[in-house]
C-alpha cells in the first residue's frame, strides 16, 4: 500500500510535465484554430503548424533556432514578451493547457517526422 502510494507520488510530476497530447489537440483546436491550421501546412492568419515542434521558426524576430518545448511554451505564454511587434495575440493560457498543447505538437512531429515547406521569414 505504502509502496504503491510512493510510486504514484514519484510518477505524478513526470506525468504532469509530459502533458496530455489528446487533450492538447482539443485545447489547440479551441485556442489556436481561429488563426492557424494545426494539422496542415497551409497558412491561415498565421503559419500552418503541422510539424512545428522541432523545426526552425518560419517567422522573423524570435530568438529561437528551433521550436522546442521551452520556446513554444514561452511563445504561447506571451507572444508579445518574445516579440513585441508580433501580430499574434491571445489571452493567457493556463500552464496545464500549454503543456498539453506542446505534448500534442510533439506527438504530431513524432508521428509525421520532419516537415519541409514552411519558409516564410
Ligand atoms: C489571433 C490569432 C492567433 C492565435 C489565436 C494564435 N496565433 Fe500563433 N500566430 C499568429 C500570427 C499572426 C503569427 C505570426 C506572428 C509573427 O510573424 O510575428 C503566429 C505565429 C505562430 C507560431 C510561429 C510559427 C512558425 O512557423 O514559426 C507558432 C508556433 C504559433 N503561432 C503557435 C500558436 C499556438 C500554439 C496557438 C494556440 C495556443 C496560437 N499560435 C494562437 C496568430 C495567432
UniProtKB/TrEMBL annotation:
Q: Which UniProt keywords apply?
A: Heme, Iron, Metal-binding, Signal
Residues forming the Cytochrome c domain are 19-109
Which N-terminal stretch is annotated as signal sequence? 1-18
The UniProt GO MF terms for this protein read: electron transfer activity; heme binding; metal ion binding
InterPro entries, per database record: Cyt_c-like_dom, Cyt_c-like_dom_sf
Superkingdom: Bacteria
Q: Which PROSITE patterns does this chain map to?
A: CYTC (PS51007)
Q: What is this protein called?
A: C-type cytochrome
